[in-house]
Amino acid sequence: xxxxxxxxxPMSRGQIIRWMLEEVGAPYEQVLLDxxxxxxxxxxxxINPMGKVPAIKHDDYVVTECAAICAYLAETFxxxxxxxxxxxxxxxxxxxxFAAGPLEQAITDKSLGLTPNEEQERSAGYGNYEKAVAxxxxxxxxxxxxxxxxxxxxxxxxxxxIDWGLQFxxxxxxxxxxxxxxxxxxxxxxxxxxxxxxxLMPEQPAAS
Length: 208
Fold this sequence. Notes:
Shape: globular
Largest sheet: 4 strands, mixed
CATH architecture of the largest domain: Up-down Bundle
CATH class of the largest domain: Mainly Alpha
Strand order of the largest sheet: 2-1-3-4
Oligomer: single chain
CATH topology of the largest domain: Glutathione S-transferase Yfyf (Class Pi), Chain A, domain 2
Radius of gyration: 17 Å
């Protein structure tokens, strides 16, 4: 398979996949969408019925959801060495899915002003925001990367959550978070991805 198309808007979670694509190093075609028109148009809804970005199409295969795209690209382009080795699989999948599930929900609920009471915490997959953040802090403490001393695709996704969280105040500034994000920001692929999206931002309308 060779044809890779990336659907995105620079002012979106598409930045996560831009970074991942730069880490992988595979050539891709870019399709820029705006929130109010093309992202909700029939052509794109045939790609992602949710009308959300990012998405990728790899020949006849479509993948949506940032964590899934990161995992797919890591496995599809093994030469980039971003997929987990046998001894890394547990931490890789654990924290990749934690960031995509409980952490994402905890951050979203907090931003919407939703705080579960003690009884509701039993039903909420993340318990409460403080517990989710504490678990995340533990995951990046005492190690350089999610799987230990080696950067993987899980760091692209988890790292983006922390990087954005520190910038926008959805994740508290703590030494472990600052140190981890600092390491990631020094990666050449991270820098290239940010440069590309920053250059595109004036051409794209912000989300409504």
